[in-house]
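User: Reviewer 2 asked us to show a designed sequence for the structure in our supplementary figure. I'm pasting the structure tokens here. Could you produce the per-position amino acids so we can include them in the response letter?
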């Protein structure tokens, strides 16, 4: 399986937040995932020699005589400064340039750096930021980005993604090609993107589940007595702390209590403001309706707390504190597969037969996210209007979307496989890891030294700081049939096989991944990867929403920790009455209309393209 449940690695929280950043029921706030050697024409034994020629996708030599430093404004980068290591060497060898990363996340967060640089008229030579929420429109209006029309006509890889580029560019309301969206895909929008596990699936300590006899779970509520048995069996954590089934945190709350929202996803419901909609159906619910999936989730957590299953520190701790408890073995249920598996499924625990894995709720429909043929407008790449050598930058962007560029955009946990010849090679028509690749991706060696001919330094420090996925997670090299995501390779499954993974497989029809098993069982609710821009709130509605969401979040937490059923019911009514009195229905009507419009757009797109 993934093994977000079984793989021998520690979690990259950055990756998880990036992959799920737009998903309330996933893991973030709702208010707000060819040859890698040197060019044959320029190859030299002197690794410090500046390369002055590159090769485009057709094999035609291009002159890059002048070495340049490219300022890259990157809203999702988690490193600031000059790109170093093996990826820096690849970029220098191919394009005779270096990347100076400017990262708002590192420079204090928020929009202050964006506003300051925009006001100065030069955001960057390359700009990686969101294109939605009027940002691309504002950038074009302010003359901060370049029209790509004259620069990408001969770019083979970008031409394959032209529909996505045109769709994103249309957000400006102005003729031209202004941005290339991330996560573009040549695959169906109704096929899941996840490599191994659904984004949202119940994940539990599988070893303890086995110790209590693998009881079946018919509905969400039926998992509580199972978790009670597991909690009684667990004893103390590694550090001697009490073990709880659930440990919650507040710092991702937005329109609603975010942790409660994760349970709506187990039945295929995703939020649109104060509306919940069935991503694979046509049902729309008001969040605060007594029969909504959200209120059901609050009742579920209330009952769990009554049974002693909820960590009493849940109301005061943040995500970092919770993640430490997963590492310590103090939590038995993971709100998302990546969380428990990432923090607890270490090599030592896996070797001891302990770890998290998905469990089946028989009437569930687990939320999954479809491929995005038109890309993801929440993150896109553009060329700044004052860029040095814009054609070279267009060539670089095209390379990022090439088979070689995609593999080179490896991350520590992002799935992309890294340079051919360094981390992997083809054998008998299939990709397999080199010894170096095994250390990088299986053992997750944090101090792994890269050979000098590949740039030196550590593997981790040389990974692309762009944090940019040009294509979808499960994209396949159409020329070779190889999946860019190493977690889908046979070699990866073989190398990460464990007692735990084999036991999970034996209880799940001998499948090896959650995606495979739940797809076979028709238990996935795939949110089509079709762009949608909803109606924005007026100033008055926005103000009402701010007041309502504070009430909903406050009362939701109180309901979970209510002393008895009478208090729970009373708090629910108070929440409903207070929100309605503030004008909740006005907000909900906008959200409901957006859900209806989303359904219509999905239906129209699929009718024309499937």
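Assistant: Here is a per-position design you can include in the supplement:
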């Amino acid at each position: 399986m993934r093994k977000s449940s079984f793989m021998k690695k520690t979690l990259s929280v950055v990756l998880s937040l990036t992959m799920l950043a737009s998903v309330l029921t996933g893991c973030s706030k709702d208010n707000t995932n060819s040859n890698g050697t040197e060019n044959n024409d320029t190859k030299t034994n002197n690794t410090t020699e500046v390369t002055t020629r590159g090769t485009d996708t057709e094999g035609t030599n291009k002159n890059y005589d002048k070495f340049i430093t490219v300022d890259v404004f990157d809203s999702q980068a988690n490193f600031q400064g000059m790109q170093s290591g093996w990826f820096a060497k690849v970029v220098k060898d191919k394009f005779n340039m270096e990347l100076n990363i400017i990262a708002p996340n590192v420079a204090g967060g928020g929009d202050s750096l964006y506003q300051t640089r925009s006001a100065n008229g030069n955001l960057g030579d390359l700009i990686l930021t969101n294109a939605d929420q009027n940002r691309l429109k504002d950038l074009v209006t302010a003359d901060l980005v370049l029209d790509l029309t004259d620069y990408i006509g001969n770019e083979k890889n970008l031409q394959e993604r032209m529909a996505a580029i045109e769709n994103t560019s249309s957000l400006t309301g102005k003729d031209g090609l202004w941005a290339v969206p991330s996560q573009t895909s040549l695959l169906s929008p109704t096929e899941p993107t996840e490599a191994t596990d659904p984004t949202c699936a119940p994940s539990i300590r599988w070893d303890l589940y086995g110790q209590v006899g693998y009881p079946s779970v018919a509905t969400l509520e039926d998992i509580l007595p199972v978790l009670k048995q597991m909690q009684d069996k667990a004893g103390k954590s590694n550090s001697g702390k009490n073990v709880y089934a659930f440990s919650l945190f507040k710092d991702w709350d937005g329109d609603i209590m975010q942790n409660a929202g994760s349970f709506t996803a187990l039945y295929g419901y995703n939020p649109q403001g104060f509306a919940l909609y069935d991503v694979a159906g046509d049902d729309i619910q008001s969040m605060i309706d007594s029969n909504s999936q959200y209120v059901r989730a609050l009742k579920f957590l209330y009952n769990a707390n009554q049974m002693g299953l909820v960590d009493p520190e849940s109301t005061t701790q943040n995500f970092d504190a919770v993640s430490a408890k997963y590492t310590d073995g103090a939590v038995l249920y993971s709100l998302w597969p990546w969380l428990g598996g990432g923090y607890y499924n270490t090599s030592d625990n896996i070797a001891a037969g302990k770890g998290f894995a998905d469990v089946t709720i028989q009437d569930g429909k687990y939320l999954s996210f479809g491929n995005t043929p038109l890309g993801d407008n929440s993150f896109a790449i553009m060329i700044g209007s004052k860029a040095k050598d814009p054609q070279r930058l267009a060539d670089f962007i095209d390379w990022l979307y090439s088979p070689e560029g995609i593999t080179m955009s490896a991350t520590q946990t992002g799935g992309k496989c890294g340079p051919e010849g360094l981390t992997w090679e083809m054998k008998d028509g299939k990709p397999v890891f080199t010894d170096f690749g095994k250390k990088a991706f299986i053992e997750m060696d944090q101090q792994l030294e890269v050979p000098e001919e590949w740039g030196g330094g550590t593997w981790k420090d040389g990974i692309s700081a762009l944090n940019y996925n040009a294509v979808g997670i499960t994209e396949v090299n159409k020329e070779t049939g190889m999946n860019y995501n190493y977690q889908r390779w046979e070699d990866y499954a073989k190398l990460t096989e464990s007692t735990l993974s084999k036991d999970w497989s034996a209880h799940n029809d001998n499948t090896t991944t959650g995606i495979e098993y739940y797809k076979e069982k028709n238990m996935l609710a795939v949110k089509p990867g079709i762009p949608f821009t909803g109606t924005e709130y007026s100033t008055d509605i926005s103000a009402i929403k701010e007041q309502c969401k504070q009430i909903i979040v406050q009362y939701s937490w109180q309901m979970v920790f209510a002393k008895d059923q009478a208090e729970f019911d009373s708090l629910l009514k108070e929440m409903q009455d207070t929100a309605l009195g503030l004008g909740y229905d006005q907000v909900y009507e906008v959200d409901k209309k957006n859900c209806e419009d989303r359904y219509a757009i999905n239906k129209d797109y699929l009718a024309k393209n499937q």
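For the response letter, you might also mention the following. The longest helix spans residues 584-609. Residues 1-61 have pLDDT under 50 and may be disordered.
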